[in-house]
Amino acid sequence: MEKTSTKGQTDLASYFKILSDIFLRLIKMIVAPLVLTTLTVGIAHLGGGAAVGRIGARTMAWFVTASLCSLGLGLVMVNVLQPGVNFPVTLDTAVADVSSVATGSFSLSEFITHVFPTSIADAMVKNEILQIVVISLFFGVALQALGTKAGKVTEMMEQVAFLMLKVTGYVMAAAPFAVFGAIAYTVSLQGLGVIADYSRLVGSFFIALFILWAVLILAGFVVLGPRVFKLMWDVRAPGLIAFATASSEAAYPRLLEQLERHGVANRVVSFVLPLGYSFNLDGSMMYCTFAVMFIAQAMGIHLDIGQQIGMLLLLMVTSKGIAGVPRASLVVISATLPAMGMKPEWIALVLAVDAFMDMGRTATNVIGNSIASAVIAKWEGLLSDPKVDTPAIEAVLGSGEPAESPPVKA
């Protein structure tokens, strides 16, 4: 079944899209200063360079393990379910859209170099999350080293963080309208019929996502116990925002707030979450595996186990640091296809349903980073009882005490 949109449908879809576009623009407005201030203050109160290194090492160990699990599980499921076998290949109608997807080879040296900013202003303007993390690390460690000499600067950063959280509250009030607009836009433009054509791919992918959710929750249960189910309930709102808007960035402010209300210390969540947005994209990595293998199966190309493992390792590297790129997974896939002996334009095979699957993988990214933040906080002894009325970050900003301690009220 081929889906074609009339001019009337396209015009109607554009009006729905206004709601989500405005919301996403507002989110982009607040993300950079929110990450900078909360992460800087969190590091300033960590208690020493050793603490920063310890949390960083534990965080990256969790991310690497989760990444391998996501890619490996995706590889197993796509081989078992084989959604691309006997798929009716029709590239002609979709190739015209491929020009919107960035392509190019991955360079590890360029990626590492790009992490370090040439300008604070440039990193903030472009919302380069990894660069902002590096800036925040320098600021936080410097404030910590200066101690009381930089007390006023630290206090100012805390106040800006409070200001940004207040602004975030105003922006998040528009979330329900953005969710409605995003879903209405996708359905009115693509129609539900497009899912029927790709039902095997979409169904297989969401089955794999549900299994990945179960694995992530089980891993969280090992560390957190039954509390992991309360965590899942607490992050349901940012998960829904991520699902509807297909944007992890849109869910970031609400996720930050909900994790703190769950009891994850700000100094932990403000450190782990920004890194997770670049290094812990569990759903996106599974999708990359699924998409590459689906295309190979649809085009009748056999990849042996050695090639598949090589693809897994390649995706392990190329999937890092691409959170801020629009349709980032498609960029990674288009860069991976030539390495597997396939043409980049074959990515057109998945474009028709990419918007639908993007919803699932983005929500999964939120779930994965939520569990990671709570687990790291537990390991650090900075996971307190869930908060009810305590404003976000109030319990830890301006205090060097662990999050378990009662909040100091001004």
* CATH topology heading: Proton glutamate symport protein
CATH architecture: Orthogonal Bundle
Note the quaternary state here.
Answer: single chain
Please write the CATH class name: Mainly Alpha
Q: Enumerate how many helices there are, as a single number.
A: 18
The termini sit apart by: 64 Å
Structural class: mainly alpha
**Level of helix content?**
over 70%
Detail the topology: elements first, then pairings.
Blueprint: H1 7-44, H2 49-81, H3 92-95, H4 108-115, H5 120-125, H6 129-146, H7 151-172, H8 175-190, H9 193-197, H10 199-224, H11 227-234, H12 236-245, H13 248-262, H14 266-279, H15 282-298, H16 305-318, H17 328-336, H18 348-379
Helix pairs in contact: 1-6, 1-7, 1-8, 1-13, 1-14, 2-10, 2-14, 2-15, 2-16, 2-18, 8-12, 10-15, 10-18, 12-13, 12-18, 13-14, 13-18, 14-18, 15-17, 15-18, 16-17
Please provide a written account of the structure.
This protein is an all-alpha fold. It has one domain: Sodium:dicarboxylate symporter (Proton glutamate symport protein, Orthogonal Bundle). 72% of the residues lie in helices and 0% in strands. The protein contains 18 helices and no strands. The chain is globular, with a radius of gyration of 21 Å. It starts with 6 loop residues before the first helix and ends in a 31-residue tail after the last helix.
